[in-house]
TrEMBL record:
This is Shikimate kinase. Binds 1 Mg(2+) ion per subunit. Mg(2+) binds at residue 15. The lineage of its organism: Bacteria, Pseudomonadati, Pseudomonadota, Hydrogenophilia, Hydrogenophilales. It comes from Tepidiphilus baoligensis. Pfam families: SKI. Its EC number is 2.7.1.71. It is found in: Cytoplasm. The keyword Amino-acid biosynthesis applies. InterPro entries: P-loop_NTPase, Shikimate/glucono_kinase, Shikimate_kinase/TSH1, Shikimate_kinase_CS.
Length: 186
């Protein structure tokens, strides 16, 4: 089967929900950020510091192309993977792409104490999350086959919602953008 790919903002739960999805379905789990750290031997903040965001994005694009070629994996992407048109095109071509949509207010509650995400190490991180959300939400939607709405819900509830949406998507119609909405939306 082609890769199941989670996209969405920092803190949306791509790593948490993606790992759980893979475990439940007997698929291998790969986290793009963790894979880049393992391959370079340094942290994401260090890659940003040494090579700049542009250097990081180059590595991210190359890794995405490689991983999309694999079978039977769940891939959690970095929050900025949709910024490059070329990455969005790759995601459209291959992969069952699931956008975990979480409102910025909830993301802020989760990330306010975070020190590991270089883009949030700014004087006004809350405002930054809202700006990034406004910029990126349309790009995630453009790249996604499935949009799953989450709010203040536990990872297990989000996982259940993802499973329903993927099952619906695979069970035939193959329509894009199956939207799961309801309880828990913030
Ligand atoms: N549904 C949830 N409810 C509450 N906290 C959550 C939920 N999902 C994830 N978290 C917490 O929010 C933080 C961010 O989650 P996670 O690392 O899975 O996000 P991510 O989408 O992978 O972000 P990034 O793009 O930065 O890697 C973690 O501390 C995680 O435990
Ligand atoms: O939102 C982003 O642009 C990023 C999110 C993280 O997953 C990392 O990929 C990195 O910190 C950049
Ligand atoms: Mg992650």
């Amino acid at each position: 089967m082609e890769p199941i790919v989670f996209i969405g903002m920092m803190g949306a739960g791509k790593t948490t929900v993606g790992r759980a999805y893979a475990a439940r379905h007997g698929l291998a789990f790969i986290d793009s950020d963790q894979e880049l750290e393992a391959r370079t031997g340094v942290s994401i903040p260090t890659i940003f510091a040494v090579e700049g965001e542009a250097g990081f994005r180059e590595r991210e694009t190359r890794l995405l192309a490689e991983l999309l070629g694999r079978e039977d994996i769940v891939l959690a992407t970095g929050g900025g993977v949709v910024l490059r048109p070329e990455n969005r095109a790759q995601l459209r071509r291959r992969g069952i792409v699931v956008y975990l949509h979480v409102p910025p207010e909830v993301l802020w509650e989760r990330l306010r104490h975070d020190r590991h995400r270089p883009l949030l190490q700014v004087p006004q991180p809350r405002q930054r999350i809202f700006e990034l959300y406004a910029q990126r939400d349309p790009l995630y939607r453009e790249a996604a086959d499935i949009v799953v709405d989450g709010g203040r819900m536990k990872p297990a509830a989000m996982l259940a919602r993802v499973e329903d949406a993927v099952r619906g998507y695979l069970s035939g119609r193959g329509e894009r953008a199956v939207i799961a909405q309801g309880e828990g939306d913030a």
